Predict the 3D structure of the following.
Amino acid sequence: MKEGADAERKLDADLLLRTAAGDEAAFAQLYDRFSPGLYSLVLKMVRDEREAEDVLQDGFSHIWRRASTYDPARSSAFTWAVMVLRNKAIDRLRVRQRIERTVEKATIEFSHFPEADDAAASEPIMREQRALVRDALTQLPAEQREAVEMAFFGGLTHEQIAEKLGTPLGTIKARIRRGLFRLRDVLKEEAS
Amino acid sequence: MIGEDKQDQLIAHLLDPGAGRELDAEMAADAELASLADELRETLGALVHAAPLQKPPPRLRSRVLSAARGESIAPAFILPGKPKPSHKPARLPNWLPWSIAAGVAVAAVVQFSAREHYRAEVVRLGAELDATRRDAAALSERNAGIEAEFRALAGQAEQLKEQLASVKSRDALSEVRIATLTAQVNALTRATAVIVWDADQQRGIMKLANLPKAESGKDYQLWVIDPKYNAPVSAGVVTVGPGGTGYVSFSPEKPISAANKFAISVERTGGAPTPAGPIVFIGD
């Protein structure tokens, strides 16, 4: 799997670099590869299909214009794109001040994490990655998983999560830190 | 070894790039911190796969690609000290950037011209507005002046009307003559005859008192003496009422230019065309 994943990473990086040079075909291919995952992320964050579409378009416009700022040495192309789209979604959430409502919905959802539709993942590698991440998440203590997902999908700061959950700030920071480190380790192990 | 506080700061920064920007500088100088940031960034990126997979609507693809085609691309930015990517990117036609630049320049010139035009238009309209306001003020003042003038003229018209009426009245009076006739025989010395003559109307009134009735077969006849005519002009037979009084209204038989004298003679019954009997009253 590692070799296949590495090949995928290389392909993504190549497409992004070609996009930086103005290659529309590469950009279209990049869209086809990234858009399902990115759309899923944005939709989970903004909780609205129309807004998710707007954010996705805005995010891909950013990718098109700013692909040259991508540094292959720092992250995978997909992770770079994830950060771009996530920031766009956070901007949207903050602008519309819908964080509170989103958190409530997200909190309910996090309590019974939905099964991902693996059949929708056309690429075998993607299906494997999804299964890997989901499995890694299940290995986290519930409170760590909750805090990590509220921070990542809810776009909330440490302080906001502490306030929402009525938990000390230090505790929240520790949960997120330990949860992320644990995820990193599990993903590393499983990937190898 | 990176402390937990620093790790928390790093995580907060990765989750929200707006927070802890100073870490960017630290990561540039601290390889361990930068490496940890890379690992955590990849971990966060992998979390995307925890979201239920949802494919975007097919129509969004063309929307995104079309929107991207209409946007310019930021110039490539390579970090110092980092090797350039080995991949040789596909090149766009050389003329495209120049065309875009030319288009932008033309658009800028057009925009600048339009802005200057609108600015001048705003200034011109402002001046017009000021001038219109001044005109309105002047017209308002002028209107007030006209109203005052109108009121003054109306007052003058009333005065003129009054003066005209007065003049007319005076003219009317100026056209009227009053003549007192004097008896020419002793038998009628107690009798009086006064005539009011209106030359404009060519009419007159005579009032009689103490005038005895004319003898049988005779009538008193009034005459108007006008130099324009060779003979006196008849003004009709005078009828004496009870007690020798009478109030006679008369009109001469011919137009009178100048009523120099009035006279009453005794003529046959019914009067005569020219005086034939004795003059018993005369006056001017």
Remarks:
- Strands of chain B lie at 176-183, 192-198, 203-209, 218-225, 233-238, 246-250, 261-268, 279-283.
